[in-house]
Amino acid sequence: MAYVALYRRFRPKTFEEIVGQEYITTTLKNQIKNDRVAHAYLFSGGRGSGKTSTAKILARAVNCLNPKNGEPCNECEICKQALENGLIDITEIDAASNNGVDNIRDIREEVEFIPTNAKYRVYIIDEVHMLSTGAFNALLKTLEEPPKHVIFILATTEPQKLPVTILSRCQRFDFKRISVDNIIKRLKIICNESNIDIEDGALKIIAKMSDGAMRDAISILERCVSVGEDKILEDRVREIVGIPEFDYLMEIATHLLLNDRVEVLKDAEKIINEGKNLEIFVWEVVKFMRDLVMLQVSDDLVAYKEDDLVRMKDLARTLNKDVILNMITDLSELQNSMKWATDKEVIFETGLIRISMRGTKKESEEKPETTNILKQKEAEDSLKSRVLSALKENKRMIMHAILLNSEIKQVDDELIHIIFSQSLDDVNKQYMQKDESKGIIKEVVRNVMDKDIKIKYVFNN
Ligand SMILES: Nc1ncnc2c1ncn2[C@@H]1O[C@H](COP(=O)(O)OP(=O)(O)OP(=O)(O)O)[C@@H](O)[C@H]1O
Ligand SMILES: [Mg+2]
Ligand SMILES: [Zn+2]
Question: What is the model's pLDDT at position 353?
Fold first, then answer.
């Protein structure tokens, strides 16, 4: 048997099989039952949400010799011919490749004739927003006075590109993005019928990755199947779809949250060079940040390895929840703007840098003077900046974050004061007072100053 892509093999053949668009399919079934079909429909909505599939079902349902409860029987002569694309009265036009006025003029002449075999002549015009202006005008003439035996079904992902004159003549249905649960449901059916063994966790990842588009979900499933293993495991799916590893996420999240522009730029370049899927990457960072917020309120909400969890907790407790939440909003916006962009890399890189800068700006908007003074001090206070960069080099990000908001004062040759800001909370205070932390600071200062020096913490509250 010739190989047929899963998404084609599982193109829904009845309204019942279209998931997540119940409002639309119920309305259409009722119209058919009551013989009240419209003469022009517009199906709009995101890609892979069922527009073309529904149009094909509708085209059969209106012509079926033996419809059941508004559904096509898929067994009569008419249905069978339609399913084999051999029914002359159903015409599918891809406006992306047939966008000229001539194509539509042909239709205008044709519609005058009564259907050859079926009750209705049905024209499905896919990607209708791609029609040229001339073609739109020609179509409009036909839509103004469609013969009784003609039905137009226009489908598009970009209804805003259609002239209002066309919009106003169609009965419009907006297809929704399909929920994760509904995608999982459909994937389970497909896996069952195709004897595909798959973990629940794997299904969940696929459903989430596909962003409401069923076709994408099925394509990802297909990629996983083609690896040829007995059972599709969650970890394998992660690998296949390119979910980044923990260290990666930890690193970029830390750099973003600490507004470390230089490092963020390096991270962005690295990710681009490795050819990672950038949208997925941003989405993963968003999820990671969300988990950080969760960790501030709960201990065991997230499924990470024990060691990783400890590192996340360390990072989470140094940060203000609002800072993380703002970052999540910014990153979600970035992900959205990347979705339709042709040059994703540029948007990705500039977006990340802008976000890491905006973080700093938000702070300075709150207390412009103090921050400026601090900045100035920081520049002068080269002890401090050397300590900070040493901490960073050693990946002591939490201490780095805490010390960023503190003052380091050299009292004399033998004594240094680290003066912590008032906003330092108890958890961080305790963290800095741990012997291990003190040891690290001491070590770093020793390296910077090239000699042993006493360190005293000064807490301002
Ligand atoms: N709502 C749905 N229920 C079940 N399967 C669906 C649904 N939407 C899409 N699919 C699956 O995805 C495939 C593509 O769907 P379809 O062509 O109907 O999407 P579309 O909305 O026309 O997308 P596009 O805008 O990209 O043309 C179908 O063959 C089917 O396997
Ligand atoms: Mg389509
Ligand atoms: Zn039939």
Answer: 86
